[in-house]
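ugh ok fine here u go
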Amino acid sequence: MEIINLGNQNSIFNQFISEIRNIEVQNDSMRFRRNLERIGEIFSYEISKRMKYSNTKVTTPLGISSENLISEKPVLATILRAGLPLHQGFLNYFDSSDNSFISAYRKHKKEGDFEIKIEYMSAPEITGRTIILCDPMLASGSSMILAIQSLLTKGRPKHIHIVSVIASSEGINYLKENIPAQNFTLWIGAVDKELTSQSYIVPGLGDAGDLAYGKKL
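structure:
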């Protein structure tokens, strides 16, 4: 599995990462969502460089222009609910793409322990296609693996791009150990080394879903 960390490059991307982490900026939920959306747009641009292109003739008011255009439509997938703003960033650029939505939640047990459950998944035909699967946080990696397994029940894609804004070292290692025999690329914006016993990334940013849409019961 190839791993690409866009945060290792000096760009405006790092400004958006710093703002979604910043406890003062986080108070503005609209800005938090918009920053995730902008991060998704930057990931889209970078991933688009890996896709298939074909030469296409475009008629202008004054003649014919020859352009290299993307010749495939990726399937955009996300894990509800935290993934929605990031997903929108991808949809802004890959605006004619088909979409997939996966509902995953923590089923809590005694003493703070929990397991990840997939409750719902919708997807178009994915066999032979490129999938971009995004979730803002890659903590333990369990929900991402379950999401991938759920998607693979609908077909065999050509390639899966996994996108997480902030990942833990433990989550990355878990993906490496449990990823199925497919072509995968992991795109991340930052790697944090610490993961708490409740699977929260430190320093991380907190609960992305709550920051985007309000605290849940």
